[in-house]
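User: Can you fold this complex?
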Amino acid sequence: MLILKALQLGSMHGFGISVLIRQMSREVLQVEQGSLYPALYRLEDQGWIESEWGFSDNNRKAKFYKLTPAGRKQLVEERSNWERLSAAINTVLKTT
Amino acid sequence: MDDEMRSHIEMQTQENIDSGMHPDEARYAALRQFGCVESIKETCRDQRGVSWIENLGRDLRYEARQMLKNPGFTTVAVLTLTLGVGVNLALFAMLNELMLRPKPVANPDELWAIAPATAAGQPIGFPVSRAYYEAIRQHPGVFKRVIGYAGIMPKLRTEEGAEIMYAELVSDDYFSFLGVTLALGRGFLPEEDAEPETHSVAVISHAFWQSQFGGAANVIGSTVTLNGKVIEIVGVAPREFAGLDFVQPVLWIPTSMEKLLDLHPHYRFVGRLADPAQAETARAALAPVVSEITSRGMIRGYESYGFASFFRGVRLEPIGRGSLGVASNRKEILDFLKGAGVATVLLLLIAGANVASLFLARALQRRKEMATRLALGATRGALVRQLVGEGILIAALGTAGAVLAFSWIGGTITQFASWWRGPALHPVFDLRLFIFAAGSLLLVGIGFSLFPALSATNFQPFSSLKDAEGADGPDRKRAWLRHTLIVAQIVGSLMLLCGATLCLRSISKQLAVDVGFRSDRLAIAPLNLERIGFTTNTVAAELAEIARRISLIPGVEQVGLSISEPLSGRYSNVGLGELEGYKNPEPGSILFDYAEIGPDVFAALAVPVLRGREIGHTDIELDRRVALVNESFVNKFWPGQEPLGKRVQSLDVEVVGVVKDVRYSRFVTAPKPMMFTRRWKEGLLHPYLLIRAKRDPHQVISGARTELARIHPKLLQGEISTLRDTMKNALGIQHTALRVLGILGGLALTLSVIGTYGVMAYLGRRRTREMGLRIALGATRGAVMKLILTAGLRLGFIALAIGLPLAIGAAGILRHQLAGISPFDPPSFIVVASCVLIALICACWLPARRAAKVEPLETLRYE
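Assistant: Here's the predicted assembly.
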């Protein structure tokens, strides 16, 4: 979900995504770079993101990912699920 | 994927440099942060769900490349498996043909054969007459309908003469009952079967249509002549239908023609049952019908084949599948199949073990490669999958080879079973066979590569990388697998070879029995004079001419003609109510053996005629009905009387000579009182020409064949064989068992030797450093060789220790096939054990020599 959110801002390559997630979480979440790519491939396989080759800012060849319409919908769904879940957990934790 | 990750790492490196790290350090840090590239790639690939087909394709290509890189290994493995799987496939094909393949009729599983039996259900081999047939037809009981069919041997008139062929009398609804659609024309109409002697019609088989009429479309309406009667053809059967029985009829005629053709058929019945559970009720329902008809005794007009009062019941057998049916030697054939099945499975196991040990050796050779790949992040599962994939690929090639060789195998099966008096088996490659082949492919491929694959990939990577060629600790544990495989192979070969040796000794004992005359110089040629146009009136002169011409061939000492085949194992006996000159002390018939012979038989067999004379050609010309008797006959029935000149009224023969006792028909039993008659004119049209050679019968066989062909190309019916061959055929199943076990055992031993050689060679190579060290430290080359040889022999002795008891136990299975020796025959086992040990030593010899020839300096330097 984090990847999908990061891609909401636009298309990005793998390295950029990892940097963005680190920044967005204010350095709390350091995505293990090794698990980034398997996740990217899985998301692509599920049809929520798509990829194409391009050139990065310092003229290196890189694969850029961006959200598909289905992916956008999935982000909305997952987001609402997450909010429901965290609200429920909060309620439980507050009752004691 | 590579590019993507590389660019990510480069970008991370750049960031690290930008935040102040030294470039090399930056790169290291980036790499560390990223993680293990190879295993991440692997995980990425696994994430892509669709990749299993890609994986398979890639694995297959990799495996194929590996196999091509090792042509020797691949060839040996594939050939070994072709052998193992091929032999099993052949046996299954035979089984399929005999028992599993459904007949080309409608709903074959509903068909049941109804055979006459005692009240207890024991089948009786006596013929049953038309009255019986009619009674069952009219009162089928639980069966909705019952059809009958009977095999007959009428004479078909051909262009030149006449030939006896096999045909069947059938009920009028035979074809519709079986659901067989005729290729041309129609089946029989009810009226054609109802009134005897009015209609003469026939339906011919597809094969007959092709061979006799060339497949002409206007065959309907043509005629054939059977037993002198003209019969019109009304239909042609479809190609795949060839009757319900083992032997395939040339044509079918309605049962009403029985009397017309002067035949005495032996009827058989088939009924349909929708539900197999009804079999018992059906049988019980038929019992009173059968009981009633048999209690009437002989039926007028059908006296020549009558009843016995104990035909009180029937016996039901399903016959929808396979061609075995209710054959009389069904049990014998099934026993043979069971035995052959065990032997072929053993061979497959041995072949598989061989391939498994080859696999293991090779996988162990590639340990460094495996270790590296594991260290780089490949999963053990992937490696095992690839190794097993190679195994399956090799199994697939082996099975493909077996399938290709299939048609060749089919022919050899029937040649093998020389006692097989039925038609040649043409196993058909149908669905069942295909499933069997595919199943054994998977089983073999996975079964024999899985364990070696698991075993070869199970280790700590670094220890193997460090350790170049020496023996390492974990390898010791794995050695037991290799050793078990070799021991298993040797045990299997041992069992097969022991079985073969026992059979061999049994057969030699039996063949060596003294039959009373020299059986090793005789050749026998079966002749057929009827099909070249001779009749009983004209045959006498021709026989004399044939005998004269054959006796002129160089190398031929004496020629005789006989109607019965000597030492065939088949015999006839006769029971007379009374015999001149003999008072029968007990009630019942006077029994003795008899055989129908022709001129000069005993001269050809070199059996002395003690009194009187032999049968001569003049007897045949003048049609004198004469006979000879043997000594036992005279001693039993006419002691103290003059045998020459005695007339036996019931057989209408006059005794003209007395011969020495010999085993004429059966060579397994001692001679009994026997009479040799010359009274059956028809028999002279199908005599056996007995040729006694001066030395080796094989030398005269080709000369005789040429001469007979010169007299008439179709005079000889079949092959000229020696008398020894006839005797071997008489031993029937034993001889086949010998050949099967012998060949399989030989193959198994060869495989074991190859396997042992392979493993010993591998072991030798692995221990070159150790050997070099030993030699450098002063061991002689002989001692080194002894080391390796003893390693091999140790395995051999273990194998013997396990194998001999097993073989002795298995020999018990053969007990009732062996005559003349006990299954626990020490010489056989000793001989086999020695052979196996010698073979083992040979297998270990070359590797041992090679290991001993090692130069110590070279091996030590290699480190």
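The mean pLDDT of chain A is 78. Residues 20 and 26 of chain A are 10 Å apart (CA to CA).
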